Target: LacI family transcriptional regulator
Amino acid sequence: MNDKPKGESPKSATGATMADVAALARVSRAVVSRAFSVDPRPISPEKRERVLKAAAQLGYQPNLLAQSLTTKRTNLVAVVVNHIHDLSDLDLFDCLLNAMQSLGKQVLFIRVNSVDRVEQFLRNGVAHHVDAALVWSDFADAATVRQMFRSDFAVMLNGRPDPLSPAVVPDSTIGIRAAVRDATEKGVRTAALVTGRESSPVEQARIQIYLHALSEHGVTLVQTVRAGDYTYQSGYQAGASFLSDKVPDAVFCTSDASAMGVLDACRAHFPESRPTRFRLYGYDNLSLTDFAAYPISSVGYDQEEFVEHIARFVAEPNSFTPGDPPVSVPTRFISRLTG
Amino acid sequence: MNDKPKGESPKSATGATMADVAALARVSRAVVSRAFSVDPRPISPEKRERVLKAAAQLGYQPNLLAQSLTTKRTNLVAVVVNHIHDLSDLDLFDCLLNAMQSLGKQVLFIRVNSVDRVEQFLRNGVAHHVDAALVWSDFADAATVRQMFRSDFAVMLNGRPDPLSPAVVPDSTIGIRAAVRDATEKGVRTAALVTGRESSPVEQARIQIYLHALSEHGVTLVQTVRAGDYTYQSGYQAGASFLSDKVPDAVFCTSDASAMGVLDACRAHFPESRPTRFRLYGYDNLSLTDFAAYPISSVGYDQEEFVEHIARFVAEPNSFTPGDPPVSVPTRFISRLTG
DNA sequence: CTGTTAGCGCTTTCAA
DNA sequence: TTGAAAGCGCTAACAG
Model:
């Protein structure tokens, strides 16, 4: 109890500052700094004790913004997305948020649904000072991201790898091949492919893998339907293609959302719980495919595992060496009623 | 083109600073500050021109962290949630993110799925310095939030209003009454209520409104099923209650997710596309209820409108005066196949 | 309109 | 081990 701190009085509006604590504990500000430092710094136990006590008394909180001015580290991580409409995002982001927070990072969500927004963020915001940027949005390549955020550390998750940045990508090959194999084992000989937004590199790659897997297993691709984007609605429209007499043995969709649309479009005409005229395969393994109404066979990866890789890169940036190949997370085939 | 800036050379690692620009443009740092200020400050057009040009040349970006050290404003807004599992979140957060960014704010997502996490955030992070906290999580009251974030500006969206903080709440009454009225008009006399996590004040209030609306319309509540939380799975389990011969005329669920579960549970036994033995009403008006498989009559509010109110509070904190009542956003009833 | 001068709250040499 | 002092990058009076 120091009844007369000699520094200026704590301004409750702003919160107590280091100077207030230093005055109360009768030490220098430097000592306060050391007392709060995470890595060991020279300080006598008694003084540390005094400081901590004084801090508690004043309700002192180190100002991390001020801190970051000198340390150049903000404990902020940016998550850059096109939007968060996609159902698949929900499952992932909760997991991600949790992981980042466990690392002591706080997550800045940045939505860039068009390229012209990029400019806006260059002007605006604290975003420049994040420790790392986790990039889902495919609006930009790694180079752009690295300059957009002053951070030199971007983790690419948008299928646009870059030798200078770490990347994590699901390895669709395994899962898709398993799906196609499953189909052939059930007698599928012809197939249709329902694709999403083809400007996305991820989608491009996925399509190639399907094409390859199909030909590899001797399945003839008789039809390709561009469904516009990964939405239910686009899938529903695409579904109209499969109502005629002449339908392929199987329909592969590059997203579960589209597959759900296809399924419902068929149900609108033939009220079975699954399309009996063809087998249906989705992609993403949305938690929704566990709902009874959408028992869609799908391809997915372990999101915890995916996020773990990201977290590792964030926690130990040095675990990445320029030139390292993208980390790949295996996918697997999940069989459900439609497949 | 100044071929010899007289200040220190720009350190490309950190990025150019105000001093670099000032040197290049041959003005004082204060002038640079003014040139970049949003609100009008005295500066001659020529000098502003020179500064902007120099800045462009150097790729200078004002450091908003440093800025906030003096201005006490960070342009950061915290969104505090329990988690982002709920399907209803998806629709809302994208909208919110967009709105905040339009205001030039960046959004910090903070996930506090348990009360003990609060402590962690008190120690950690930049969160203390946000300009505003938008609170969905019901883990804490306004007072706690106000001290958790040093910000004195919290917007309560969790149904825990506080005289000192603005709040926005959906006015469930309108929509729920409309739903019940719709039911009675269709001959409903008895009803069951499927409830969610009752520790949530929002849920508590919602239940009361249902009870009131039911009795008001002369509908007898014959059964209440606690479905645990707002999930499909809990709804599915609850659905078992409605498979016997003796079922109520209508089942009201306090969330669409539960209603979807109830619907599928019934379908598992009676393969109609809607439960023919009772009418089914949900709540939230999830975009999923527009999917053909879940044509659930529901109660919802206009999310754009909801978010607009929030945005207004953030943009003009003074539009709130302590003691003001919560802003309420009307809900409406959306009739679909099941209702 | 402009430049000078203090800070904002904290970290980090560098002597003591 | 400690404290003084010099910044980090920027804003905000205050004279001129």
